[in-house]
Write a structure and sequence with these properties.
Length: 311
């Protein structure tokens, strides 16, 4: 392809000659011989099959083709300089700080592996991982206090000015401790039975609350009468181990405990609660190279959890 034959030196020589209106002055600026610059210009014109420059005793002037090409050649060189400068900044050890909002759904399932990948790439940035209600994190992202939020997609009204990149989808699930009384019921197919127990339920600020409420209403259960509303993952895990409570939570939060047998997933079909999990950034800002590297690490780590939480 033509663009694969055009080299950095071709663009450099063309842009400098256009700037200086002279091959000889351009050669001086570039520390090249005049014949070397002329050769690069000739090669470029032959590859493009157009005349880019008019040469006369008065100097060198751009043709109409040259004026068009200069616009794009200049943009390419600027982009390259910005890219190299950004990478230099990204490698300034100890001087790069990335503020990341982390929702519970990814705190255990994705982020540890992503951070490990990020650090193994040689980036020694300071990561500031912030948790909290989704509305708070998105508000901080919108005003620039956070660089990135990793978690479930928010409701449309909260996404104004923000951009979302999908990684995988996960559902809400119901879990109990091993030996829970419900597990002795065969078959366990009546979801109405959960009303007999204390239920840990997401708070109104939680991103999964609406999906959880819609699911229970669709099943004729409604909101559990005996419920504790919380978004505290440490409290939830310990409380479930010590009581007969049922925890309604994003599956990614407890996927490892389910796999290890520490918690048991109740066999109710919750596919209707499936929701996208991904990366949220400001729509009007290009993430820095360091943030982009972290985002790439999160994407790679997310591949490992897709089978575990289910798309």
């Amino acid at each position: 392809m033509l663009e694969n034959r055009i080299k950095f030196r071709h663009l450099q020589c063309f842009i400098e000659v256009a700037r200086q209106n002279s091959v000889s002055r351009a050669a001086d600026v570039l520390a090249l011989t005049q014949p070397a610059v002329s050769k690069k210009l000739k090669e470029l014109e032959e590859m493009l099959e157009v005349q880019l420059l008019d040469r006369s005793k008065k100097g060198v002037a751009l043709t109409q083709f040259g004026e068009v090409f200069l616009k794009y050649a200049g943009a390419s060189m600027s982009a390259l300089r910005e890219g190299t400068d950004s990478l230099v900044q990204a490698q300034m050890k100890g001087k790069v700080r990335i503020n990341v909002g982390v929702l519970p759904t990814v705190a255990a399932s994705v982020l540890p592996a992503a951070v490990l990948r990020f650090r193994q790439a040689g980036m020694e940035a300071t990561l500031n991982l912030v948790d909290g209600p989704n509305t708070l994190l998105l508000g901080q992202l919108r005003v620039g206090e956070l660089d990135l939020v990793v978690g479930r997609l928010a409701e449309p009204e909260l996404m104004t000015g923000l951009s979302f990149q999908h990684l995988y989808s996960e559902r809400v699930t119901l879990v109990v401790r091993p030996g829970h009384p419900l597990l002795t019921r065969t078959p366990l197919n009546n979801i109405q039975d959960i009303r007999q127990f204390n239920v840990l339920f997401p708070t109104k600020e939680s991103i999964i609350t609406q999906a959880a409420e819609r699911f229970l209403i669709s099943q004729g259960v409604g909101l559990p009468p005996d419920r504790i509303e919380t978004i505290s993952v440490p409290f939830g895990k310990e409380y479930i181990r010590q009581t007969d409570a049922i925890w309604m939570i994003s599956r990614g939060v407890v996927a490892r405990e389910i796999a290890d047998g520490e918690l048991v997933e109740l066999p109710f079909d919750t596919k209707e609660t499936l929701g996208p999990v991904g990366l949220t950034t400001r729509a009007d800002t290009i993430p820095s190279p360091a943030v982009q590297m972290l985002m790439n690490a999160v994407r790679d780590a997310a591949i490992a959890v897709r089978d575990r939480v289910g798309d």
